[in-house]
């Protein structure tokens, strides 16, 4: 790549997690290529704006999750898709990087590819083609030049399904292991009481509304069945803390509710076991070494989609490990009685608990990326793709 030639990179994210990834990528690109050579445009939130992005519009206008929520906001989202694609084409950037949120970002990428096929496009975070709608993978080749994957099994999945060239760049949690894992003495010993149980009902309002009731009832049953006392902590994201507190008032086992990232990680480092909604939190718990039971409920409309799911598990940690060591209770199996039964063996030195802990010991090797951190590896791939297109 020619030295000192200015570069314009557009980065389009669709929600807070993508904003965080985008900000780290921007920081690594500036360190790698020089901030005086780079100009950024696109769509992002506070984190990306802190790295110098002026977002086309507030991220909150498109950061909606779930089938029903997307349908309700569809006219507005479609308008923002057109606005974003128009802006990218007009700006003629050296590269477009889309991050996660495929309902929004992939539509932008398709529109840009149709109108400006010379602009290289990188997709940062793979859609779950290995879980459902595998036909999306080969279709992505038409508008994605390279895919940056967060999970180690995804490059092989895309190769098998005919997807775009894919590089595993590492999950951002790899950079947080010091926060997630306890130091000696921080997590109690086998005989310490009370046991510390984490409850994580999700980071979306729909998840909280569906899981708080069965979770609370399960804890009441668990208290009756467990010979050992336990106390419960719920790390709550700020925008859901009030809702969680209101719903927890009726629980017979009253939890301690904490807010903020520091308090969340402190609770992880002390925890003996967890009851969690399916999501990235299962990988956080696995890397922290916390045995867990995972549950999930969706709306009746979304339940139809389960027949399209091809993955052997909905639990990320199970998928990375390649074995279903973590019990998952989904939809009609997500009952207080079944949740309590699954949690009970995790509160003592049982074969179920030992099996999970042994499996978690393999995660570091499976997710290893060498001496780079994920954002640095992602920036290196971006630079390589830029160079290959400039030299083509």
Written description of the protein model:
By secondary structure, this protein is an alpha/beta fold. Helix content is 45%, strand content 15%. The protein has 18 helices and 12 strands. It has helices spanning 16-33, 46-50, 67-72, 74-91, 102-115, 136-140, 154-161, 177-180, 205-225, 241-248, 261-270, 280-288, 300-303, 316-321, 336-343, 351-360, 363-367, 374-391, and strands at 7-13, 38-43, 95-99, 121-124, 146-149, 166-168, 195-200, 230-236, 256-259, 273-277, 292-296, 328-330. Strands 2-1-3-4-5-6 form a 6-stranded parallel sheet, sandwiched between helices. Helix 9 packs across helix 15. It is elongated. The relative contact order is 0.12. The model has no long low-confidence stretch (mean pLDDT 90).
Count of DSSP helices? 18
- Tell me the β content: 15-25%
Residues in helices, as a percent range: 40-55%
Terminal CA distance reads 11 Å
Chain-averaged pLDDT: 90
Backbone structural class: alpha/beta
Number of strands: 12
Q: What is the H/E string?
A: EHEHHHEHEHEHEHEHEHEHEHEHHEHHHH
- Oligomeric state of the chains in view: single chain
Task: Summarize the biggest pleated sheet.
Answer: 6 strands, parallel
Rg, nearest Å: 22 Å
Shape: elongated
């Amino acid at each position: 790549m020619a030295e000192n030639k200015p570069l314009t990179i557009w980065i389009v994210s669709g929600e807070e997690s993508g904003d965080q990834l985008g900000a780290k990528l921007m920081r690594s690109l500036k360190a790698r290529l020089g901030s005086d050579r780079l100009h950024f445009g696109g769509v992002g939130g506070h984190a990306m704006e802190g790295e110098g992005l002026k977002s086309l519009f507030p991220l909150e206008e498109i950061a909606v999750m779930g089938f029903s929520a997307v349908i309700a906001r569809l006219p507005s989202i479609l308008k923002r898709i057109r606005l974003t694609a128009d802006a990218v084409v007009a700006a003629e950037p050296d590269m477009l990087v889309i991050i996660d949120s495929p309902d929004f970002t992939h539509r932008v990428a398709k529109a840009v590819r149709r109108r400006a096929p010379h602009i290289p496009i990188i997709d940062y975070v793979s859609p779950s083609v290995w879980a459902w709608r595998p036909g999306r993978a080969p279709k992505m080749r038409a508008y994605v030049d390279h895919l940056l994957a967060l999970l180690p099994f995804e490059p092989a999945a895309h190769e098998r399904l005919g997807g775009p060239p894919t590089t595993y760049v590492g999950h951002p949690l790899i950079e947080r292991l010091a926060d997630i894992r306890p130091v000696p003495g921080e997590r109690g010993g086998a005989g310490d009481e009370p046991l510390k149980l984490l409850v994580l009902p999700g980071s979306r309002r729909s998840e909280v509304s569906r899981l708080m009731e069965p979770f609370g009832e399960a804890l009441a049953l668990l208290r009756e069945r467990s010979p050992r006392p336990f106390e419960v902590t719920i790390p709550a994201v700020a925008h859901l803390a009030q809702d969680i507190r209101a719903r927890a008032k009726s629980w017979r086992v009253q939890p301690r509710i904490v807010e903020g990232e520091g308090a969340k990680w402190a609770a992880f480092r002390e925890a003996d076991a967890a009851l969690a909604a399916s999501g990235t939190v299962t990988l956080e718990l696995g890397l922290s070494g916390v045995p867990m039971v995972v549950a999930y409920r969706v709306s009746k409309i979304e339940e139809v989609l389960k027949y399209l799911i091809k993955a052997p598990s909905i639990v990320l940690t199970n998928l990375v490990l390649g074995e279903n060591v973590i019990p998952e209770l989904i939809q009609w199996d997500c009952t207080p009685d079944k949740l309590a039964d699954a949690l009970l063996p995790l509160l003592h030195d049982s074969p179920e608990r030992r099996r999970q802990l042994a499996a978690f010991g393999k995660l570091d090797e499976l997710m290893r990326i060498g001496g780079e951190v994920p954002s640095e590896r992602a920036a290196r791939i971006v630079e390589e793709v830029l160079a290959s297109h400039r030299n083509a």
